[in-house]
């Protein structure tokens, strides 16, 4: 368990906090590009690291991210006029470009040079792979963007969803592999699985063993279960500084994806899910269940409990973007009859909403000094300590945290693989975990035991 002091350090991300200062060392996702679809379009309210900001796309297509309060007398720039390469405050007409320079001050006499003495707080933005990235640190020249493979692929897909809880609660679900066999798949039996595939091994032995290590990019775990007499089924997943995860479902050799758990403030998180087609176009489904195949043949959208998450229309509220219809106010559309029928372990509509309900049910910021952690929590323990120590080293010694200036650290993959029991888990998968590599289909099938559902 964490002390109350360490829990505070881990969770608080506002300006001037140790973890907030750490987050500001990196480029982080601020919004989807399609949330600002057109030049000179409506501005967008964005909460990020405890700050209230306004995003806007100017005539040339560039994106600005400016403090909500106008430097003149504090009026909200959300109501500003987005015109001719700048955002004009409607109160007195002061206009700011994407760098924060005041380019027009019509309320002052023409001979006044006051506009050259006023700047708005802005943060530089770049776009890549459907994401508006921003750097909120103090460097005059920002560090490079991280080499996150999926976001650098031309067919990158981005989804977002808000969570009403601290970023670390949400992130920890991704590095907690054992919950998958209970929360998401606890209703399945061995008869629901294909013998020899990944899901079969998980249902057969729901409690895996673990190996965890610190890495140059953060932390990595391998969770292993018996497969055949001389092999283990391994699930590999990563935490990457400062708030990225790579989850273990799928095939290690071809997975291209990551998740960002971006703190809006201490009690709200924006989830970014980023995925690209499998490397080399090799598509396999080593965790497919018989129930999924039956539902697919019936044309069901529920896909054996995986489900579809229905989203509400966005509003202009600070927390009105990317909201699911199912939330705490309606018990996440819980249907206990689905549990009685054996269709779901939880009765919740989808895997995504199962995670959403559980992490939000802990409260906005869970008091981790009340926890009782077991051996299955080793990756969570290691990741918390890695973050806390990095934030303390930045605060106390000025040490730049991992990966800020090493974009190549992020060239990683995650997923499942079958390995001989005799090999070293980390060394044996070094090449398979490396991004921007493609393998022939025959080799990929071999890594998953050369079996697929029929």
Topology, element by element:
Blueprint: H1 4-11, H2 18-23, E1 27-32, E2 44-48, E3 51-57, E4 63-67, E5 81-83, E6 86-88, E7 95-96, E8 102-104, E9 125-128, E10 131-135, E11 157-163, H3 167-174, H4 198-204, E12 209-214, E13 218-226, E14 231-240, E15 244-246, E16 257-265, E17 268-275, H5 290-298, H6 336-340, H7 351-361, H8 378-397, E18 415-420, H9 425-428, H10 441-447
Antiparallel strand pairs: 1-10, 2-3, 3-4, 5-6, 6-7, 7-8, 9-10, 11-17, 12-13, 13-14, 14-15, 14-18, 15-16, 16-17
- The tally of structural domains comes to 2
Distance between the termini: 45 Å
Largest sheet: 8 strands, antiparallel
Order of helices and strands: HHEEEEEEEEEEEHHEEEEEEHHHHEHH
CATH class of the largest domain: Alpha Beta
Instruction: Please give the number of β-strands.
Output: 18
Brief descriptors of the model:
454 residues, alpha+beta, Rieske Iron-sulfur Protein, Naphthalene 1,2-dioxygenase Alpha Subunit, Chain A, domain 1, eight-stranded antiparallel beta sheet, four-stranded antiparallel beta sheet, 10 helices
Notes on the structure:
The protein has helices at residues 4-11, 18-23, 167-174, 198-204, 290-298, 336-340, 351-361, 378-397, 425-428, 441-447; strands spanning 27-32, 44-48, 51-57, 63-67, 81-83, 86-88, 95-96, 102-104, 125-128, 131-135, 157-163, 209-214, 218-226, 231-240, 244-246, 257-265, 268-275, 415-420. It has 454 residues and is α+β, with helices and mostly antiparallel strands. The protein folds into two domains: 27-135, Rieske [2Fe-2S] iron-sulphur domain (Rieske Iron-sulfur Protein); 149-447, Alpha-Beta Complex (Naphthalene 1,2-dioxygenase Alpha Subunit, Chain A, domain 1). Strands 11, 12, 13, 14, 15, 16, 17 and 18 form an eight-stranded antiparallel beta sheet that branches. The longest helix has 20 residues, at 378-397. The two termini are 45 Å apart. The model is unreliable at 301-306 (pLDDT under 50).
